[in-house]
Design goal:
With 454 residues, the protein is α+β, with helices and mostly antiparallel strands. Helices cover 27% and strands 24% of the residues. The chain has eleven helices and 16 strands. Strands 6, 9, 10, 11, 12, 13, 14, 15 and 16 form a nine-stranded mixed beta sheet that branches. The protein has a five-stranded mixed β-barrel with strand order 1-2-3-5-4. The chain has a two-stranded antiparallel ribbon with strand order 7-8. The N terminus is likely disordered. Bound molecules: 4-amino-1,4-dioxobutan-2-aminium adenosine-5'-monophosphate (4AD). Keywords: Aminoacyl-tRNA synthetase, ATP-binding, Ligase, Nucleotide-binding, Protein biosynthesis. Its EC number is 6.1.1.22. One of its GO terms (biological process) is asparaginyl-tRNA aminoacylation. GO terms for molecular function: asparagine-tRNA ligase activity; ATP binding.
Length: 454
């Protein structure tokens, strides 16, 4: 990648690139003596300017064509670009019919427009920036966990459990002539995973601190701007954790260190979003610091009081015991000063069977915590897990799942420890730091209700 060349060769006068395939993103009309191309190999937002003599001009050199250029890298006379490539040869490897090409030179295309072209949108500046940020953020998440003593576990994609108990499952069935009679996964029920949490809990009994980061599936019949049928989730499970505060520290640490890494490594790409796509967004690429977010921590009961004291006309009810909807989350974030807000201690009945019972509170709550962030709402969901065998058994009996989860009860029978964990929606994280409104614009190939393009 030209941008990765050591600085001595980049500024030197005699470095040659041979047989380098570069994509032409911008082709300027031949001027009097020279032709100018802007080529980009995807390594950076910055294109490399190629300068060639008029004899290298070719009618096939159009916006979008793929070229191979041989020449000499030299110091550029323009202060805003350190080097340019003086071309000896330019070979058009792949022609591009610029009349039919859906992107036009010097035109800024909206995210909605480029979303219609999932096979071509990585050719735009904005989507290639997004993909670089996504890749760096992935690296940063792994490095946060590695440097904090977590072991990475590959949890399965096909599973027999509905961890969240919400019934939003995609069932897995074989297909093909040999399986016409087959309705299940070789005669046993199987689903695409909604969460790797229960598998992480198995591992946390042995490794203390574990995490996973992979695709997760929810059969949500939703076109909303923050729901996908397939999304990536970062999940962590920590043994010997006794308080929600311990969990929130890990959530915050991961958020901060990932964001600082992205700002340090993708300042141009993040800057493109903040300048042209989401002006006014708060994460500053110049500062290379995580947003100066203070944060709030309030209980669910306090959140309900805040909502009920407000003069807003909410569509959904705000009685104690009701689930917090997007409109409520938005209001709470604004109310707390547009900062990330941790909401703790949700009604026991709202949370899945694994959440720990807060027995000592006047209202029946579970030790669960959600992190809400500006512009997105819920980013992370987590809880302490019920490690006490008798309470867990009683809850599983209540919901009729005792038999299916006998193996889960074994985890409590054989050397259980207090533990807890959380999951963060990776696409929502990208929406949050880039200020992108629609989740479909931060994933390479979005899958959502009635849409599975490519
Ligand atoms: O709150 P959720 O459902 O929590 C769990 O799945 C836990 N088992 C995680 C754990 O404790 N290990 O999901 C966690 C996060 C949400 O806060 C949200 O950011 C994201 O996953 N998420 C979605 N993102 C995109 N599309 C969807 N349909 C999502 N559903 C959840």
């Amino acid at each position: 990648m030209w941008n990765d060349l050591p600085s001595t060769t980049r500024t030197g006068a005699s470095f040659s690139i041979f047989k380098k395939l570069l994509k032409t993103l911008l082709f300027r009309e031949p001027q009097k003596k020279n032709i100018f191309l802007h080529v980009n190999d995807g390594s950076s937002l910055q294109s490399l300017q190629v300068v060639g003599g008029a004899e290298l001009s070719d009618p096939l050199l159009t916006f979008g064509s793929a070229v191979e250029v041989t020449g000499t890298l030299r110091k550029s006379p323009h202060p805003q670009q350190p080097v340019e490539l003086g071309a000896d040869q330019i070979h058009v490897v792949g022609e591009c019919n610029s009349v039919d090409f859906p992107f036009k030179i010097k035109e800024r295309h909206s995210l909605e427009y480029i979303r219609q072209l999932p096979h071509l949108r990585c050719r735009t500046n904005v989507f290639s920036s997004l993909l670089r940020v996504r890749s760096e953020a992935t690296t940063a998440v792994h490095s946060y966990f590695k440097s904090n003593g977590f072991l990475q576990i590959h949890t399965p994609t096909i599973t027999s459990n509905d961890c969240e108990g919400a019934g939003e499952l995609f069932q897995v069935e074989p297909s093909g002539p040999d399986f016409e009679e087959e309705v299940n996964f070789f005669s046993v029920p199987a689903f695409l995973t909604v969460s790797g949490q229960l598998h992480l809990e198995v591992m946390s009994g042995s490794f203390s601190r574990v995490y996973t980061f992979g695709p997760t599936f929810r059969a949500e019949n939703s076109q909303s701007r923050r729901h996908l049928a397939e999304f990536f989730m970062v999940e962590a499970e920590i043994s010997f954790t006794q308080s929600l505060e311990d969990l929130t520290k890990v959530m915050e640490g991961m958020f901060r260190s990932t964001t600082e890494h992205v700002l340090a490594h993708c300042a141009d790409d993040v800057g493109l979003f903040h300048k042209h796509v989401t002006p006014g967004h708060r994460v500053s690429p110049e500062g290379q610091k995580c947003p100066p977010y203070s944060k709030e921590m309030i209980t669910y009961s306090e959140a309900i009081d805040i909502l009920n004291r407000s003069s807003e006309n909410f569509t959904f009810p705000t009685d104690w015991g009701c689930d917090l909807k997007t409109e409520h989350e938005k209001y709470l974030v604004k109310h707390c000063g547009d900062v990330p807000v941790f909401i703790t201690d949700y009604p026991y009945d709202l949370k899945p069977f694994y959440a720990r019972d807060n027995q000592d509170q006047p209202k029946h709550t579970a030790a669960a915590v959600d992190l809400l962030v500006p512009g997105v709402g819920e980013l992370c969901g987590g809880s302490l897990r019920e490690e006490r065998l008798s309470l867990l058994k009683a809850r599983l009996e209540d919901v009729g799942l005792e038999e299916i989860y006998s193996w889960y009860l074994d985890l409590r029978r054989f050397g259980s420890v207090p533990h807890g964990g959380f999951g963060m929606g990776f696409e929502r994280y990208l929406q949050c730091i880039l200020g992108v409104n629609n989740i479909k614009d931060v994933i390479p190939f979005p899958r959502f209700s009635h849409s599975c393009l490519l």
